[in-house]
Please model this.
Amino acid sequence: MVTINSTLEDIMQLDYASREMLLEILQKRQIESRRDEIAKVAKQTLKEYHSGKILPLSAEEVLKKLNTL
Model:
């Protein structure tokens, strides 16, 4: 069974440059994954907006809603 700890131990066996490269790759993949998630939510929101499920709000209404969170 692969665990985070065993994975970290394996990573620490790599040389410094390889660990730096791995870190950069992971960071870029995380950014890409987050962008994909944002795009997915945006597409769904636009779909709901075009179908009339979501109504536009003024900036003031948005701020009021945000202040109640």
User: Anything to note?
Assistant: The chain has one domain: 4-67. Residues 4-67 form one domain.
